[in-house]
Amino acid sequence: MKKVTIYALSTCLWCKKTKKYFEDRKVAFEAVDYDKQDEARQEELMAEMRAAGGTGSFPFVKIGGASTQGYDPEEFEKLLNDK
Amino acid sequence: MTELLEAAELEKLEEGRLRPAWPRGLPVLLVKTGGAVYALENRCAHMGCPLAAGSLDGYTLQCPCHDWRFDVRDGSFLDAPELRLRTYAVVIQDGKVFIKADL
Amino acid sequence: MSIAARKKALRFLFEPVVDKLGYKFTPAEEDADFLLEQEAIIEAETGMPYCPCQARAKDRAENMRMVCPCIPFHRAHYDAMRRCWCGLFVHKDVTDPDKLRQFPEAKMKK
Questions:
Q1: Which chains are within 8 Å of A by 3+ CB pairs?
Q2: Considering the entire predicted model, what is its pTM?
Q3: pLDDT (tens digit, 9 = 90+) per residue, B2-34?
Q4: In which region does residue B28 sit, left (phi positive, over 0), alpha (psi from -120 to 50) or beta (all else)?
Q5: CATH fold of A4-81, please?
Q6: What is the ipTM of this complex?
C-alpha cells in the first residue's frame, strides 16, 4: 500500500473532505495541519509543496512518490492505482 | 434629480493628495492629479473602507484596507473591470469644486 | 462583534461583489456556513478575512491576493473550476457544487 500524507489547514473544508475520502476508502494516511505547526516546520512544508510544483493552496496530498493539490477523488484514485 | 453640490475650495486641493468631503452627507473622495480634479465615492467596492486613507500613484488609487486598486478617472477596479467605484462629474466655478449628484 | 454577526456582515458585503463577477454563494448551505465562520474567525485574529484554504505568506502583496473574495486575482483558474478555491463561491449556473473538480492552476486546461 502506498504511503499517503495530507498537508491541510484546520480551517479548510476541502482538507476535511479529503481526510474523510481516505477514511471512507479505508486507506491509512498521515495528516499534518500546516497552521498548527511552528514557523520553521511551516517553511519546510511550503518549500516541499513548491518544489513539487504546488502553491500555498490546500489540501496537498502525497501518494507514494507523487503529489497533487486540491480535493480531486479522480486524481487520488489514479495516484493510488498507478504502478 | 441631479444637483450641483459644493464639495471643497479648489485651492485646498493639492496635486497628488486624497481629500475626503461630505457634501450633503455623501461620502466623497476628491482627487487632484494630472492637473484635473476627480470625485469618487469614498467607499471601497470591496468592503466599504474609506479610500481617503489610501494612497495615490498617478491615476491609481489604492485602498488602505486590502490594497484594491482603482483608476480615479473612471472608478474602474484594475483587477476586474466589472467592479467600479461610483464617480461624480466635477464642475469648478468661482474657485469652488462642485459635484453633480443624483439625489 | 460576535462571529455570528460578522458572518452575516461578510455575506452582505461579498454578495454584490461576486454577483458582478458572475459568481454566487455556494448553494451547499452547510459548506457556506462553515467557510464564512472560518473567515470571520481568521478576520478576528488577523484583521483580514483571508481564504481559509490558502496559507498566508510573509509578503503583504501576496497575502492581499487571498483576501476574500479573491476571485479577481485568480480569475482564469477559478473560471476553469467554476468555483473559487475554497468553494465559498461558484459560478451562477452551478446547481450541484459537489460535481465540480478542485484542481491546481498548473493543471488548468489551456
A1: C
A2: 0.93
A3: 999 999 999 999 999 999 999 999 999 999 999
A4: beta
A5: Glutaredoxin (3.40.30)
A6: 0.92
